[in-house]
Amino acid sequence: MAVGRSACCKCGLKFSIEVEEEHCAKCGYSLYKVNSNTCPECGKAIIPST
Questions:
Q1: DSSP letters spanning the chain
Q2: C-alpha 8: how far from its chain's center?
Q3: Total number of domains constituting the chain
Q4: Domain-located, residue 3
Q5: Residue 12 placed within a domain
Q6: CA distances from 19 to 4, 36, 42 (A)
Q7: CB-side exposure of 37: number of CA atoms within 13 Å?
Q8: Does residue 1 sit within a domain?
Q9: CA-CA distance, 9 to 15, in Å (whole number)?
Q10: Per-residue model confidence as pLDDT tens digits over 3-42
Q11: Per-residue confidence at 45, pLDDT binned at 50, 70, 90?
């Protein structure tokens, strides 16, 4: 399914899909699939979200 607004082609049900991913608080780098305790872009410590 594509991200954004869409509708079922059979019944017309409308829905919206959003994707949220964590970003570094210092530089904004995407932390998707980062397996480190620091940002690979700027080196800031990553604090896991709960």
A1: --SEEEE-TTT--EEEE-----B-TTT--B-TT--SSB-TTT-PBP----
A2: 24
A3: 1
A4: no
A5: no
A6: 9, 22, 24
A7: 0
A8: no
A9: 12
A10: 899 999 999 999 999 988 899 999 999 999 999 999 999 9
A11: very high
